[in-house]
Amino acid sequence: MFRIRQLLTVAIAVLGLIALAGCGSSGGGGKSGPVEVVTHNAVGGGSDVFTRQMIKVMYENKIIDTNWPVRNVPAGDSIGAMSYMFDHKGNAGLIAQVTPTWLATPMTVENAKVSLAGLTPITLVATEPQVVATNAKSQFNTFADFVAAAKKAPDTLVQAGGSSTANDALTRLVLQDSLGAKWKFLSFEDTGSRITALLRDDANIMLGSASDVAEQVKAGQLKVIAVIGNQRLDAFPDVSTTEEQGIDSSKVPVQFRAVMGAPDMPADAVQKYQDDLSKMVETDDWKNLIKDDGLVTQNLQDDKLETYLKEQTDIVGGLLQGLGLRKDQ
Amino acid sequence: MEQEIVRRPDEDTPDEDAAEELAAEPSPADGDQNRDARLTRRVHVVLGLVIAALGAWLLYKSRTELEFRGPNNEPGPGYLPVLLTICLIALGLALSAVWLWGPKARRGEAPTLSLSPQGIGRALLVWLALLVCAFLIEPLGFLAAGEVLVVLVIVVIERIRSIPLIIALLLLPPAMYLLFDTLLEVQLPGGTLWY
Amino acid sequence: MNAVEGLLHGLQSAITPTNLLWLLVGCLLGTLVGILPGLGPPATIAILLPLATGFAPATGLIMMAGIYYGAKYGGSTTSILLNIPGESSSVVTCIDGYEMAKQGRAGKALGIAAIGSFVAGTLGVIGLTFLAPAAADVAVNFGPPEYSALMVFALLLVIMLAGDSMLKGFIAMFIGLFLSTIGTDLFSGAQRFTGDQIELAGGIEFIALSVGIFAVGEVLINIEDKTEKQLFQVPNKIRDLLPSRQDIKKSTPAMLQGGIVGFLIGILPGAGSTVASFVSYIIAKKTSKTPEEFGKGSIEGVAAPEAANNSETGGAMVPLLTMGIPGSGTGAVLLGALVLYGLNPGPLLFHEHADVVWPIIASMYLGNIALLVMNLPMVPLFAKLLNTPYKVLYPAILLISVVGVYSVNFSIFDVGMLVVFGLLGYVMRKLDIPPAPLVLAFVLGPIAENAIRQSLLLSNNSPIIYLERPISATLIGLAVALLLVLAFGRGRKVRDQVVEIDA
Question: Per the count of CB atoms within 10 A, which of B28, B136, C103, C277 is most buried?
Fold first, then answer.
């Protein structure tokens, strides 16, 4: 008897404390707010941060009137996130921030019950051109330099990157093919390790987004020797593109950032999101974000988006097939 | 470990005298001890064989499903699993061997395991209750599944009669729901059956 | 701005009413969250992120640092009282902490954990303040060969936790290593032993494994006895519920050593708290005057890992603040927060935003003090929690485990894993196979494997690379020395026994 009372007292006291803290901090922030944005990263990951930045721009420019909550579903490398979307078919208030991982991962798993084709396309917001970074003291000043060195000594130079199905790994495959050069690929779990590998001279180059290396470049630790593609970046105005250096990068899979909705989303909801996002890319805040992060605004919708997605699916699918990892066919 | 087995025979002589003295007067407790010791020994031998068998099966899977070496002849995805499973087989067999022929086992000096059927039965019952609860979370939602677990504990396992205890237990799932779902915004399953 | 100046300026900014308030809120939340298994600082900070981005950067980050610290303090509570490790760094605390609780010394364990955390946490922040640049250098120079050498060294240390039967300890360790290979291979993208279960593609969730083996396994073992009385005796006098002066004196070397070791290892991204806590435990065991107590409720066995995992926080902030490279999961969340505030983390953070960085560091000192003050009085209260009849306690433990595990990935599959590992934990305990080597090997395995494969890729499969680089050569040397001690140390012990008997 006495002990139960003790237990209950303790329990109520603890709950009370939590209630106080809870009321103080999360004042009603939408648990089941009107719109939820799903991302496949844990908090702090690239896609998660981008999503929050997007929402912040829209909220501060009064395009949307509540701070849309972000739902992180890191399980299964995008499969968990997609399954979550599929579980909520027809929900007009559920969108996701989609990257090529959502394309690639289901292809590497047998009978994945989900795929990107099932989601409702809304808008391709931006693409993130990859940049080639090296140690600031490296002998390579352009990517062409690196390629020339690689051709002279095949399989000696090293690229630090992510897992072998990540974008930078697939890009390497395409480049190696079209250039006839070979270099090694060293997989690291996260960007930080890749950067320290460069700093330590364990690796010669690294492919990543501009935002990954911007601060290191500013501090004079790393330098960027090329932008992959045909457009220079505002973040590194003096860096030439691979096209300018005479390297063909048309078949390289692109790191894109798209917004897609739950399957079978009603058309008027889709239109509303498309309008909101179109307004977003016009704002100054967005333009600053793009510049800082080294992104390129696209705002592709409807047919153009469908074509683009199909193109990327084919590219990525082909590459995974070549690696022997494609299991869904 | 090799050194242990090698050195022990030297010690055998003094201990054997002591053991003989004790053995001179057997008692019921000794009988239980002996039975437990034999059971322990048998369990360990079987355990070792089970582990070795498991290791063998996993070794087979590692060899057939995964590449041993990667493109540049460096270790591939199958490399470590193969090494680990080979070690497991060796360790399993070693365990069986030590308990079958090792000096400690022969003299029955090793610590015995407590393997009473009633105890194990109770534990498995609780585990089954947990399993049932886990299965029910998706269809019924956390609250209902939690209550199922609590009810199983109250009625089947513990047969609790005291009202305050029953109430305290029944209040546990809602308290947790309050704590996690409402205050910490960790959305708990609502139950696909209802929605 | 040199370190002392920066610190003083930072203290000035940190001691404003707003900042102090949110620091306390953060500490409190962190402690409560740390108590609950599964839910950790990353998730909590994530929940608060929308609110925090409305604050001034310094305030928001001070609160988040408070949560980070508080969680480390809170994590020891469930480890000691209920044998439930909240995160990988709390696993080692369970070993002696829970034994102490079973002996009715829970209050002392909790108390020494709080005190040790304070001492070491402060040491860690001091290290961060004054040694950041040098520490950053070390962190950069730690490449794959160094990591793999450290991991091999650590795995050898794990064996030393095996206790009486080395064979069983090895078996547990190898099973743990094997379980860690399940998932997607980093280098080739191949799926290993996932059996087409998509949820396993990311590997087995650590929380499901550790909470299952420790907490659920423990419940199942205890439930075998159909006794009416409560599980542990809890003393009634306040004096017995807190560590005595003697206890504190005895644990001081362990606390200091834990503080230093924790900081040094915490600097290394990825390796972090697990390695730190049990390296510190082993060192404490080897340098203690009473090594036989370890594993049976030695107070130093609680002080050392608890100290290490708190000063590790200070260490983990080093690469984050000096280079923008997060050292741990929480570090990654803090990194995201920094980006959202528009403060781009990188080598220039200290220079460009000294007005944010130094208040954060200063607040960590204050946070340690606040947490000690908050936690010590709660110790008797928590210890008394064990007075509840086990019949009520164990369903609560089971339910908390379920919710905690679910909250990590919102996955029912993980709950299923919890149930499976609960059974495994029970079976292991029945068969006297130590669980700690399994769990620790599970954490260290992937780091070790990846590091070794990276090293061999770099060196074209030649193991010479380990000897070419100074740090890894040193670590390999230490590992070899340790191996020799293990192999022949036991021989010497047996020889001593023989001599005794003959005499």
Answer: C277
CA angle (C43, C44, C48) in 5-degree steps: 115
Q: What is the DSSP-derived secondary structure letter of residue C459?
A: T
**Contact residues on chain C for A14, CB-CB shorter than 8 A:** 32
Distance CA C270, CA C329 (A): 9
Beta bridge partners, A123, equal A259, A301
Q: How far is residue A54's CA from residue C244's CA, in Å, rounded to a whole number?
A: 55
Query: Which amino acid is located at C125 in the chain?
Result: V
Quote the CA–CA distance of C106 and C108 in Å, as a whole number: 5
Nearest to C218 by CA among C99, C112, C109: C99
Contact criterion met (CB < 8 Å) for C501 and B91: no
SS3 A250: coil
What contacts C196, CB < 8 A, 6 or more positions away?
A: A109, A110, A111
Tokens, residue C374: 């908050």
Closest CA to C161 of C96, C112, C75, C108: C96
Sheet strands side by side (includes A158-161): A184-187, A158-161, A205-209, A130-135, A222-227
pLDDT at res. B8: 41
What is the Cα–Cα distance from C333 to A48, expressed in whole angstroms?
A: 10
Contact C310, C73 (CB under 8 A): yes
Q: Is any Cβ of chain A less than 8 angstroms from the Cβ of C139?
A: yes
- Give per-residue pLDDT as tens, C55-91: 888 888 888 888 888 888 888 888 888 888 777 778 8
- Cα separation, C271 vs A30, whole angstroms: 36
Residues 331-350 of C with CB under 8 A from A: 332-337, 339-340, 344-349
Q: State whether residue B105 sits within 8 Å of chain C by CB.
A: no
Can you tell me the ipTM of this complex? 0.80
Amino acid letter, B4 = E
pLDDT of A134 reads 92
Nearest CA in chain A to B177: A15
Residue of A nearest to C31 (CA): A18
* Angstrom distance (rounded) from CA B39 to CA A84: 50
Distance from C-alpha of A327 to C-alpha of A106, rounded to nearest angstrom: 9
Residue C462, both tokens: 């030649």
Mark yes or no for CB contact A155/B72 under 8 Å. yes
- Residue A2, classed as helix, strand or coil, is helix
Domains of chain A: 31-128+254-323 (3.40.190.150), 131-227 (3.40.190.10)
pLDDT in tens, C352-362: 888 888 888 88
Residues of chain B with Cβ-Cβ distance to C407 below 8 Å are 180, 184, 186
Question: Which residues in chain A are closer than 8 Å to C191, comparing Cβ atoms?
Answer: 108-109
Contacts of C274 by beta carbon, 8 Å cutoff, 6+ apart? C88, C89, C91, C440, C443, C444
Backbone angles phi, psi at A138, to 5 degrees: -70, 155
CA angle C240, C387, A6 (to 5 degrees): 105
Confidence of residue A299 (pLDDT cuts 50, 70, 90): confident
The confidence score (pLDDT) of residue B194 equals 58
Which helix (H) or strand (E) is B134 found in, with range?
helix B117-152
Min Cα distance B25 → chain C (Å) is: 25
For position C16, what pLDDT does the model report? 85
Closest alpha carbon to A43 in C197, C40, C119: C40
Q: What is the mean pLDDT of residues C106-133?
A: 87
Q: How many Å apart are CA C82 and CA C94, to the nearest integer?
A: 8
In whole angstroms, give the CA distance from residue B131 to residue C415: 9
Closest CA to C15 of C353, C322, C352, C369: C369
Report the DSSP pairing between strands A70-72 and C183-184: unpaired
Q: Return the closest-CA partner of residue A102 out of A120, A88, A115, A89.
A: A115
Question: Which candidate, A254, A204, A212, places its Cα nearest to that of A229?
Answer: A254
